[in-house]
């Protein structure tokens, strides 16, 4: 038997019990099989290539859909499939979560679509018991996320300073060193209980570490529920990637191990499951820190857009205007390069040596960052400085 439940328009946008009070979209939605769900877990003594259960989630307001499984315990070869409901959608990926590989609570990878189908497939002859024999057999969904906002430090507003002079990353192929450095920069989608947030992060050192802001990732739960997407950029300068989740790249990890997160210096160091430094390169912190008046540039994912690089301001090339700016922290590095929410965690690189001289974290025009020498000093003191992370 296949059970199909379809949400009505009223169910999608009315009577919302969203847990988000800040604008990032979370919608409560309860369904499942077994574990007190819509139907008992089906027997596996008959063979079928059709789903035993299917549930449609649709929301025309969605930029993406990421389903939250509150329980997941299937027989080993049974699986739940999540796919875009519209065959013409840009989200062509089909996600499969098998019992022998997945359990517990988790978010599905975000699909860039406004409607998804969640399907259960079972296999003949498989034991009806879940992989975890102490838990109920089946799966439960309690919500989904469909919008994300650019993360910002509490009390600050990352800003475009006048006109937005940032450009698509591919527009900088004539600056080969800067364009190459931007390869190590990733778009982060962090799925928190109160909603989803975009940030920027970058590979540091050659051991597979990535660094972003503490206000992006502050706990292991945050790190475990973050998508790390590389190459999220247009292939040409004329490609418009100025919308959330646009110009999809490659999601190379859906979780990471938190090494350390520091509130005062607003940084978080994580290690990805796979060392990607050989593929995307890596960036290094300048041990001596930023220099006033030096030219700088800032690769980023503002508002979760495709990758952009800010190199110029309304008055010319971007430079360090101060080493002692106040506001979000003391003695911050300041500049008028354009940023937005979601740019948090971006590297500020020197044009002279392409080393990271600061970690962007706060707005206000001038926008501000934590000086690299402070990060090096703190990570070295804690014994967590990645190999080849400095120069």
Please tell me the total number of domains: 2
Structural class call reads mainly beta
Helix content: under 10%
User: So what's the overall shape?
Assistant: elongated
**Biggest sheet record:** 8 strands, mixed
Give the mean pLDDT.
Answer: 90
Put simply, the count of helices is: 5
Q: What is the CATH top level name of the largest domain?
A: Mainly Beta
Could you list the spans in which at least 5 consecutive residues all have pLDDT below 50?
Answer: 1-23
Describe the structure.
By secondary structure, the chain is mainly beta. The protein has 2 domains: 3-146, Jelly Rolls; 150-382, Thrombin, subunit H. Helix content is 8%, strand content 35%. The protein has 5 helices and 27 strands. The strands form 5 sheets. Strands 10, 12, 13, 14, 15, 16, 17 and 18 form an 8-stranded mixed beta sheet that branches. It has an 8-stranded antiparallel beta sheet with strand order 11-20-19-25-26-27-24-23. Strands 1-3-8-5-6 form a 5-stranded mixed beta sheet, with no helix packed on it. β17 (257-262) and β18 (267-271) form a beta hairpin. It starts with a strand and ends in a 9-residue tail after the last helix. The relative contact order is 0.15. Its EC number is 3.4.21.-.
Précis, in short:
Keywords: Hydrolase, Protease, Serine protease, Signal, Virulence. The protein is built from 5 helices and 27 strands.
